[in-house]
Amino acid sequence: MPHPDPDHPETGRFWTCGSIALGVLIGLWLVESVLNPFRSRPPSSKDSPPGTSLHLSLESGHASMDFERATDLLIDAVIQIESGGNPRKVGGVGERGLMQIRESTWREVTQRHFGNNIPFNRAFDPELNRRVGRLYLGDLQAFLYQHRDHWRADLRSLLLAAYNAGPERLRTAGFDLRNLPTSTQSYAARGAALHDWYLEQDAQVLHEVLKSAAPGTQNE
Question: Where are the domains of the chain?
Answer without folding.
Answer: 9-38+54-209
